[in-house]
Give the backbone structure.
Amino acid sequence: MLKRTKFFVFTMTIAALSSAVPSKSIPELRMTPAELSVVPKDANQIGSSKLSGVHTKVLVGDPTKPGLYSILLFVPPHTSIPAHSHRDNRMATVVSGTWHFGYGERFDAKSLKDLPPGSVYSEPGVGHYHFAQTGDEPVVVHITGVGPTDTHYFDPKDEPSAGTK
């Protein structure tokens, strides 16, 4: 059942992307669960929290430009992501690992909800903050949004480029 749920969510996302961008064809893409779990070798962080060790792989579109995009977010074990928001609304599906996810302006471990593979959640945009954490295993999340996207931390001290991470 879980495999069918993941397949359905992934298929519906790709179908939505293809119907929403009629003038531009999406690339042919076939990935097995094993291929989805492979961490990229580069340091691409487009659409991510900008934390060390977190990587993204762009599947469709360009998150830095207007239009639909779809990315895979790879988060290593024992990673905490402080409260942040993005300018765009996003929908996400947990592909592998257990993603501990919460909403609010401050990281609050008591507010985290455990999202196992196949779980779906939203990241409402502008000023609606969320935070996350991984446990003993890495997590892969499939995120779709309408760019351009960005990352804004609620507390500027949490901004990775501020040298505090």
